[in-house]
Amino acid sequence: MAQYQQMKAQGIRFVVASGNQYYQLISFFPEIANEIAFVAENGGWVVSEGKDVFNGELSKDAFATVVEHLLTRPEVEIIACGKNSAYTLKKYDDAMKTVAEMYYHRLEYVDNFDNLEDIFFKFGLNLSDELIPQVQKALHEAIGDIMVPVHTGNGSIDLIIPAYIKPMAFANCRNYGE
Length: 178
What we know:
Blueprint: H1 2-9, E1 15-17, H2 22-28, E2 37-40, E3 45-48, E4 51-55, H3 60-70, E5 77-82, E6 86-89, H4 94-103, E7 107-110, E8 120-126, H5 132-143, E9 148-151, E10 156-160, H6 166-177
Parallel strand pairs: 1-2, 6-7
Antiparallel strand pairs: 2-3, 3-4, 5-6, 5-8, 8-10, 9-10
Keywords: Hydrolase, Magnesium
EC number: 3.1.3.-
Organism: Escherichia coli
């Protein structure tokens, strides 16, 4: 915390950037969450000083198209990342749910992805490490015009909206501070 205070005294803005959920990120900085900026969900959502700066948004049609394709891939466990919460299927095993709960501090278990009322900007996919190269390629071919598959390590692929990546989010954050 002393380092943050030194940065603040020098007029340096502290920005936390991660592919993780905003609600997880603010849990790491509870004392200063309303003073700093967060680039969460791989650039899908930017919050500065407790105020929304920007968030990407999939259209309902794009969301439905992506979900429809993902449900044809039994090797993939799906987490739909929204502004209010993340959502995953009740049918997944407890091991997956335990891992998901570590990264998604707001997580709802649903029967399906139909009729969810939220703003969606990312999908997190869990799968076996050895399948990542082929699944990533297949996702790029099938839905790459809607979302870009990015390998995030440890058996995970994030699907992000192409225009809303971290560098763009940093630009939004910088412009907000001016």
